[in-house]
Design brief:
alpha+beta; Cathepsin B, Chain A; 5 domains; 9-stranded antiparallel sheet; disordered N terminus; disordered C terminus; Papain-like_cys_pep_sf
């Protein structure tokens, strides 16, 4: 390109006419300064060449007008446009910016152990920091921070590998880098999906090249790591712009150089991103590349305790939260099964945790768990009933066809013993022809009746009919197409029989639970699922990498505690009657002063023993009037001599609500999952659900449960012997789901980011109209996935068009005097209800609606 300066001139300081300003002038031989108005630089253009020459000559001082002049031709051969800087990013070419640090990963500040090997760790840190800090706030110090924290993560990973004796080479694979990194106030957990996209740099043999691979990756993902030829770089997308972090030595244009710095490249096009990666690769014959997806979860750890997000859980304390169902296992919807399905529901919850992590559960998930657990209970009871019927039938058949025993005579008569009974028959009172003695009859008549429940927690202990135990359950559970196989192993089992003294919940539950969960998690038993089974309580317990979970299907309050807990009986102190028995065991020397004088303690005991047993109380019999309601004024001789006035111990009967009251309150209780960040809190919560009086003396069992998921696949392939017809197999672009049913899927939904945010999820009817229109234009056999996407796209456009049309019509109604914000609200309400019926209403009908 050539430019001839023949029609324009540029002056340094000129007046409004483009002429040079005269600052001084000679008057005779004296140079006199002139008054002048300051001028400015200007550009003047002319239609005629002579005007340009005239102005130029006027601006040349008289002394220089005879000097020679030169005309030079200027030719511009190359012109590169440089974009404006974007915050701290410097423009390179249009659509491309760069941000450089001050060092690279090969800087000598890093130890030889890690120097120039940290690229995978640096990529993870870069992706994490882009979550925490907006890209517009990034500067050179942020790039250096990525390198420092990446070196820290690399060394932590190296220490772990050496500790486990699995370290091989310094250049770590991505799966060898630690997936947890602690920032000052947060903890980042990296979720990596390896080799999501792979291909060849040259794209040979029908493989994806790097540009196509990145395009495929960014269709459904936003953050990842590209690994090729021992180089790892981080790529991500933010607000439609692509970023590329390279921790290696790069120059001011982002190209490889001996002594450069790490950099972040910002690009509008994927092609520029792919080119920037390819030009920096070292020479080599390995052309394959892999793109790994990386997501980051952040947990609050400012107080020293890692607290993951609660999601759908509701906080109880700083270290616990609860997720409640709409009902419990005692809901009337379960009819006869009500209150008996605890173990089946616990097993269902543990299996469901394998399909969907419990940290992501919502209320609908717990409802589904309870319903599935109830179905499992019904199936198990049917199976048990069938087994009992088969065993009964087998016993009857065995009794009919059993061979004659040794106690039978050859002629078929039973040999009698000398006492008149058969040899194989146990003697009884009736068969011996004797009647019970008078003493036996009196003992039987005086035998106390069975204990009746007298409080709410006692009734809970009695209602055990039909409740399934863990040993009665099958080891297999099917949820949809998933068959879970359980392997149970005893963690702790009380060997004490009922009623005996020894190991119990009070003594052993806490230490056993703590010891079990203090064990290190392993890959094959990461969740450490266990079932706690006892008479007062049965719950499922498991954990993840951060928290502990307790699943309880029984009706509980908003904090997950037992309803009616405030009326529980505490462990009673020894009454004075027991103390008197202990006094008798004291030696004679110690008791002699007391024997010489009247013992007021014994007088009280005699008064109480003579009292009417039915005068009050129902749990402690004769001692109840003393324990609850009586004020015992007891003074020993020593106290009387010293003149002490002690009113003694008062045993006041607590005020309790009736069991029917708590039964009514239980109807509002719900099943729940309670999570804890501390092991001690979880143990105390479980222990606190057991009544101290009637429950903590019971034995308990802890069993670990290892789950294996076996996927149940449908047999879609038809055997050659089976007759096929026109309805078998795929139909054009429709894929067969089952016989007589086909489906065609698109690549987007109504929530796709392509659609305006205000439209997402509200275009259903508009898309249905779009589908009918496209069906009328194109035959169904030509439909493919692009057609489905087109239906969604045109439906969204129709939705937007109708919104604008409706707004325009409303704004034209001057008589209604509607403000713009009122019109926007009306249109929003109209289209937010997925209704397009109002769009075809005539203006007269609309006026009626507006007037109302």
């Amino acid at each position: 390109m050539s430019i001839s300066v023949i029609k324009s001139t540029v002056s340094a300081l000129s007046d409004k006419n483009g002429k040079s300003i005269v600052k001084s002038q000679y008057v005779g031989s004296v140079l006199v300064p002139m008054d002048y108005t300051p001028g400015v630089a200007c550009v003047t253009w002319f239609k005629n060449l002579k005007d340009l020459v005239a102005l130029y000559m006027d601006n040349v001082e008289k002394a220089y007008k005879t000097d020679p002049f030169y005309l030079s031709k200027v030719e511009i051969t190359d012109y590169i446009e440089v974009p404006d800087a974007w915050y701290s990013f410097k423009g390179l070419v249009p659509g491309k910016w760069i941000l450089r640090g001050t060092i690279s990963q090969s800087n000598k500040k890093y130890p030889k152990r890690s120097r120039n090997f940290q690229s995978p760790a640096n990529c993870l840190i870069a992706i994490a920091l882009q979550y925490l800090t907006p890209m517009k706030d990034w500067g050179s110090e942020m790039v250096d921070e990525v390198l420092d924290k990446g070196d820290q993560l690399y060394n932590e990973s190296l220490d772990y590998l050496e500790e486990k004796s699995i370290f091989e080479v310094k250049m770590l694979m991505l799966n060898e880098v630690n997936t947890v990194f602690k920032f000052p106030t947060q903890e980042a957990v990296f979720v990596i999906d390896e080799c999501l996209v792979n291909g060849s740099l040259k794209g040979e043999k029908d493989l994806l090249n790097l540009e196509n691979g990145l395009e495929m990756f960014f269709k459904d993902n936003d953050r990842g790591i590209v690994a090729v030829r021992n180089i790892s770089v981080a790529v991500w997308r933010h607000e439609g712009v692509y970023y590329y972090f390279d921790s290696h030595s790069r120059d001011e244009k982002g190209l490889t150089v001996g002594y450069g710095t790490a950099c972040v490249l910002r690009a509008i096009l994927i092609s520029d991103l792919a080119t920037a990666i390819e030009v920096n690769l070292k020479a080599g014959s390995e052309n394959t590349f892999n793109i790994h997806r990386v997501n980051v979860e952040f947990y609050d750890s400012g107080s020293g305790v890692v607290r993951p997000p609660l999601n759908h859980y509701k906080a109880i304390t700083d270290d616990s939260a609860i997720l409640r169902s709409l009902f419990s296992e005692k809901s009337t919807k379960y009819d006869l099964n009500c209150g008996k399905q605890t173990i089946p529901m616990c097993l269902t919850a543990m299996a469901f945790n394998k399909l969907k992590p419990s940290k992501d559960w919502d209320q609908k998930d717990i409802d589904e768990i309870l319903n599935k657990g109830d179905k499992l209970y019904t199936l198990t009871m049917n199976r048990i009933q069938e087994q009992e019927e088969q065993e009964a039938l087998a016993a009857e058949l065995e009794a009919l066809y059993r061979p004659k025993m040794d106690g039978m005579e050859e002629d078929g008569e039973e040999r009698k013993t000398s006492s008149g009974t058969s040899a194989n028959q146990k003697p009884s009172a009736s068969s011996a022809g004797t009647k019970p003695s008078m003493a036996q009859s009196e003992a039987a008549s005086e035998a106390p009746p069975p204990d009746l429940p007298t409080s709410f927690e006692d009734e809970e202990q009695e209602a055990t009919d039909g409740v399934l135990k863990l040993e009665q359950m099958s080891n297999e559970l099917i949820l949809g197409l998933n068959k879970f196989v359980f392997e149970f192993e005893d963690v702790y089992v009380d060997s004490v029989e009922e009623g005996a003294s020894g190991d119990n919940i009070r003594d052993n539950l806490k230490p056993v639970l703590k010891a079990f969960y203090e064990q290190e998690q392993t890959e094959d038993y990461f969740n450490q699922e266990i079932i706690l089974e006892s008479k007062p309580l049965a719950v499922a317990i498991w954990r993840d990498d951060k928290r502990f979970y307790v699943f309880d299907p029984m009706p509980r309050d908003k904090d997950g505690t037992v309803i009616g807990k405030e009326d529980w009986s505490e462990i009673e102190e020894k009454p004075p009657s027991v103390a008197s028995e202990e006094l008798e065991e004291v030696t004679e020397d110690e008791t002699k002063p007391i024997e010489d004088e009247a013992n007021p303690f014994e007088e009280h005991v005699e008064d109480i023993m003579d009292a009417d047993p039915g005068a009050g109380g129902d749990q402690l019999g004769d001692q109840k009037p003393f324990v609850e309601g009586l004020v015992a004024d007891i003074q020993f001789p020593e106290e009387q001599e010293e003149g002490k006035e002690d009113e003694g111990i008062k045993y006041i009967k607590p005020l309790r609500k009736s069991s029917s009251f708590w039964r009514e309150q239980e109807k509002a209780g719900r099943g729940c999952v309670v999570l804890f960040t501390k092991l001690e809190d979880m143990v105390e919560h479980v222990y606190g659900k057991i009544p101290p009086k009637v429950g903590q003396e019971e034995s308990f069992k802890l069993k670990s449960a290892k789950l294996t998921n076996v996927i149940l696949l449908k047999d879609k392939l038809r055997s050659e012997e089976e007759r096929t017809d026109v309805y078998a197999g795929d139909w054009y672009f429709f894929q067969e789901l089952e016989h007589g049913k086909w489906i065609m899927r698109g690549t987007m939904t109504i929530w796709h980011p392509l659609f305006p945010e205000n439209n997402r999820g509200k275009q259903t009817l508009a898309m249905c109209i779009s589908a009918l229109l496209i069906y009328r234009i194109f035959t169904i056999v030509c439909f493919n996935d692009t057609t489905v996407d087109s239906i969604l796209t045109y439906g969204d456009k129709l939705h937007t068009f109708m919104k604008k049309t409706r707004k325009k019509e409303l704004m034209s109604m001057v008589d209604k005097k509607l403000k713009e914000d009122e019109i926007d609200w009306f249109v929003f309400r109209m289209f937010n209800r997925h209704s397009l019926i109002l769009l075809i209403m005539c203006s007269e009908q609309l006026n009626n609606v507006m007037s109302k």
